[in-house]
Structures are given as C-alpha cells and as structure tokens.
Amino acid sequence: MTHQVDRRGALECMLWAGTGMLWVLSGGVPRSLGLGSAVAAELPKGAFTFLQISDSHIGFNKPVNPNPLATLQEAIAKIKAMRVKPTFMLHTGDITHLSKDMEFNDADQAIKASGLTTFYVPGEHDVIDEGSGKAYLQRYGKGAKGAGWHSFDQNGIHFIGLVNVVNLKSGGLGNLGNEQLEWLEDDVKSLSASTPIVVFAHIPLWTVYPEWGWGTEDGTRALGYLKRFGSVTVLNGHIHQIMQKVEGNVTFHTARSTAFPQPEPGKAKSPGPMAVPAGDLGKYLGVTDVKFAKVNTPLAIMDSTLAGT
Amino acid sequence: MHKRTALAPFGGATKPDRAPLRIAVAWVLLMLMAPAPTHPQPAAAVETEVEITIDNFTFTPAVITIEPGTIVKWLNRDDIPHMVVAKSLTFKSKALDTDDSFLHKFNEVGEVDYFCSLHPHMTGRVIVRPRSG
Fold first, then answer.
1. Helix (H) / strand (E) containing A73
2. Given an 8 Å threshold on Cβ–Cβ distance, is A99 in contact with B58?
3. Number of Cβ pairs closer than 8 Å across A and B?
4. 3-state SS, residue B36
5. pLDDT digits over A180-224, tens only?
6. Where are the beta strands (DSSP E) in chain A?
7. Structural domains of chain B sorted by starting position, each given as residue range(s) with its CATH number in brackets
8. Tally of CB atoms within 10 A around B44
9. Cβ-defined contact of B120 to A172 (cutoff 8 Å)
10. What chain B residue is nearest to A123 in terms of C-alpha separation?
C-alpha cells in the first residue's frame, strides 16, 4: 500500500461528506481512503479493506435532510459501485432517529442491499424505545454482551465493538461502565501485542468537545487496556464530521453521517443539525473505507462523500 | 407561568358487574337522603403550570423555583429528540421529538436535579419551596 493521504488529499477528504469511509490496514496501521476508483486502483492485490458508515438517522424528517433513507440508499449505491469490494462494513450507530421498528426495518433493508456483512454498535438514538435498547438488541444483539458490546477477528485484526450510549450520567459524557470495561480487559488479555486492534463505538472515545458531550467519561480506562498494542485504531461516529488524531500507537477517527452534518465544535450555539446550501448536502455526507495490507506502510482510511468530490 | 383548571378524574370501569352497581345505587340514595353540607368542597382545584423550553440543547430556565403542587412542562423545540430524567431516577420522560412535551407534578418540598439522558451535558434543577404565607 503506497498511497498516503497528503495535505491535498486530506483537504479533499474534508470536502467529502455523507457516504461512508473506506479503511485500508497496512502494516497494522489504518488509513482512510476515498471511494473513488482512482484510489481503489492503487490498492495492492488482496488488500483487506472494510467500510465504515455512521449516523443514518432513519426517521429524521427536518428540512436539513427530509429524506435520510434516500441519502443512505445513495451511500449504499456508491458502495456497491466500488471497484474493490470491502470484506465487510461497520455501522457506528444512530442507525435510526427514534428507535422505531419501521426505522430499523428501513435501515436494515437499505444496508442489506450493499451485500456486505455489517457489524453494528448502537448510538443513543437507537436505544430510546420503551425497552431502552431492547429493539436494537433483538435485531443486532445476537452473540453480544450487555447492551451490545462484542468482538471478532478478521484477517489477523481484532475488532471490538463498544457501547457508550447507555446509562449516561447527569452532567457526564459517553459511558462504557464497569461491566463492559472488565469484559474488554478480559477480551484482549490473551492477544499478542502485535495484534492490530480496531475499536468501534458511537460516541468518540477521546474527548473532542466536552461542552457538547463529545467524549467518553471512562474512555481513558478502555484505552489503558489497549496501550500495550502496537496498532490501535478507534473509529467513532456521533459528531457527523471527520476528525482525526494520532496519539502514540492510537489513531482516532470520526466518520461523517449519511443523514446530516453537524457544526464544528463550538462554532454554533449547539451541536444540532447544520443547514447547508441547497444542493450541497452530498458534500457533507460520507462513508469510510479501510484497507489492510501486510506491508510496512500505514493502514489507509478513505472518506468519500455522496457528492463524489 | 399560568394557571390551569384541573378536572376531577372520571371513573374508568367499562364492564361493571351487578354487585358494585347495587352498592353504587345505594350510596347515591344514601347521599340524597343526607342533609346538605354547610361548606361544600369546590368542584375543581386550580393548579399552576410552568414551562421549561429546550432550545439548542439547553433547558431554559435552567433553574426554576416553584411551590408544591406545581406542574412543570418541558417542551422540546430542537430538531433533535431529548429526554427529561430525574438524577434520582424518580421520573423519566419518553423520547421527546420536536414539539413534544412532558409534564411532571412536584408535590414534595426539595431540590430535584434532572438531565437529558441522551445528551447528559444538558442539566437543570427544580427547587420546590413551601408556600409563602
């Protein structure tokens, strides 16, 4: 994998919004890449790639985007048209807007059309049914623990889906809770330090902007259990925009929404939906694709927008 | 803050069996035969209702002081759903979508902290003080 995200590439990424993100893992370090065919063509043969989509908010109906199902379907159509077929897809939560059965059904049908196996974690909008998350667990909780946390292995990478949207405390941020953290500690105990780790959860595990609740109260404890690993990639949603940060061996990345953008931290009165000029919505929505190749270059993460820029 | 009239609740049995009916008829007859009370009770009580709005992920006013028996109404005017949950978990709304509201009556004197369980950085406080005078 030779493609690096240079400044221009990064700026292009910033213009993409709303489809999802393609990730390439190279030498155990993830990098995001665009979904465009030019970048896909640069991938080494047999590269392991996976996709991240997030924050579909099916059921949202406000003027910012009155039809998030259509923008999700558009994202899925882009994914299906990719020259490189990702191995699977992650959805980092807020599948629905109000946890209604019909919203879950619509999202499910749209996502299944991708033909990709999809792994989920819930967002806070997915656990506001009468049963406080039962609707989500009935659909996606098979084999999961607690409120839906789980792990699996693929191509030598250990993937961990965490839930940080339940039992939130007054005045606090996202919350993992002791039971889940003990499970995490046990889950990674027997892994060698050279195992690449990919953690995915809805609310950022790192503190992005606590004034808007963008962070996880006990995220530091989770990261503490992972600090001995040579490569840790943390994929989140929730904030409807791309942010990346590297801290030691840990790469943090947040994905765009397929439904509507949110403002940059502190640049609006609240983190509510951000209105954009008519016709420009596709530039703010996106998907993420990750590629993994066993060479000594970083894992590639590629963001792309519905507008295809 | 405004006043509203609270109506007395209606009974709810839809399929009464005969025994309670006979008891009820006997009770009505007994009441008709009894002398009229010299100080009849008012048919309806007046309750106070205060409104807290949710705009831009903020409860406004964030702190309110009310008297016991006051009904507090939270109205969500955001494009995003919110919930209203007592920190002590003594009450909890369902998810409030845009323009949805939640009512809770505060009977006990004291301070009640609450928050949005979806966005827990949103917090507020209701202070219930005894009636003056």
1. helix A68-80
2. no
3. 57
4. coil
5. 999 999 999 999 999 999 999 999 999 999 999 999 999 999 999
6. 18-26, 29-32, 48-53, 88-91, 118-120, 150-154, 157-161, 197-200, 232-236, 243-247, 250-254, 286-292, 300-305
7. 45-128 (2.60.40.420)
8. 9
9. yes
10. B118
- pLDDT confidence tier of residue B4, bands split at 50, 70 and 90: very low
Of A210, A269, A272, the CB nearest to B79: A272
Provide the shortest C-alpha distance from residue B95 to chain A (in Å). Answer: 6
Indicate the CATH number of A7-305 among 3.40.50.300, 3.90.76.10, 3.40.50.720, 3.60.21.10.
3.60.21.10
CA separation for the pair B74, B54 (Å, rounded): 7
Residue B61, preceding peptide bond in cis (omega within 30° of 0): yes
Mutation site for B-interface testing, chosen from A61, A62, A128 by largest number of B Cβ within 10 Å: A128
**pLDDT tens digit sequence for A100-112:** 999 999 999 999 9
Q: Work out the minimum CA distance from A152 to partner chain B, whole angstroms.
A: 28
Q: What is the pLDDT of residues B27-71, one digit of tens each?
A: 555 555 555 545 555 555 567 999 999 999 999 999 999 999 999
Domain ranges of chain A: 7-305
